[in-house]
Every structure is written in structure tokens, then in C-alpha cells.
Amino acid sequence: MQIQVVKSKIHRVRVTGADLNYIGSVTIDEDLMDAANIIQGEKVQIVNNNNGERLETYVIPGPRGSGELTLNGAAARKVAVGDILILITYAWMDIDQAREFNPALVFPNEETNLLN
């Protein structure tokens, strides 16, 4: 049997941009992606602490050290610049593997989105 578990989480990161006219996705500072073990194109769940919205999209890398977190395309309508988000990825694994697995949990500086 396989179950789906949290693979990684970027906890309490601030929205820096919302670009309705971009072709979809979320742009994340590549340093945050690396710290959370998230790769380009990976599916991510986004939870907005300010308005309760939840959505899924895919990740594209933003400039390293920029603190960028931009929602693109239709997802831009679900956030406002300055909103606080939680980004979560999941992975399927055998239940025994899941018991041993440790997700990558990242807690960036909430004001700058940079790693502490």
C-alpha cells in the first residue's frame, strides 16, 4: 500500500507579486526551492493564511536570493501582494518508507522571504 505524505513545506512566506497575464504557475526564489527540495515543474499546494484560499499549480524558479514569490496567471486572483502563504508538496511512498521519511521544512524570514 502507498500513502501520500508531506514531502516539503515552505512555511509563512510573503507574496511579492501577482502577475495575471503570465502563463500560470508560481515563481519561487531558487534558494527556497533548494532548501525545500522542490524542483522546477513540481506540483505545489498553496494555502493563503490571509483569505483561506487553497490552490494547486506548478513551480518555476525565480532569481536566487531575491525572496521572490509571485503567483502567475489565474492564481494571481487568489492572492494580494503581502499575503502570507504556506507552500506544500506531497509524495507517494510505501507506508513503511513514510514512517521513516523526514520532510524538508523551511521557515524563511517572513518579511524578506530569505533563509535565516
Structure explained in plain terms:
- By secondary structure, the chain is mainly beta.
- It has a single domain (2-106), classed as Barwin-like endoglucanases.
- It has helices spanning 30-35, 95-100, and strands at 2-14, 17-19, 25-29, 43-48, 54-62, 69-72, 84-94, 104-106.
- Strand 4 (43-48) and strand 5 form a beta hairpin.
Protein traits:
single chain, 116 residues, mainly beta, Barwin-like endoglucanases, 8 strands, pantothenate biosynthesis, Asp_de-COase-like_dom_sf, autocatalytic cleavage, aspartate 1-decarboxylase activity, Aspartate 1-decarboxylase
SSE topology:
Elements: E1 2-14, E2 17-19, E3 25-29, H1 30-35, E4 43-48, E5 54-62, E6 69-72, E7 84-94, H2 95-100, E8 104-106
Parallel strand pairs: 1-8, 2-6, 3-5
Antiparallel strand pairs: 1-7, 3-6, 4-5, 4-7
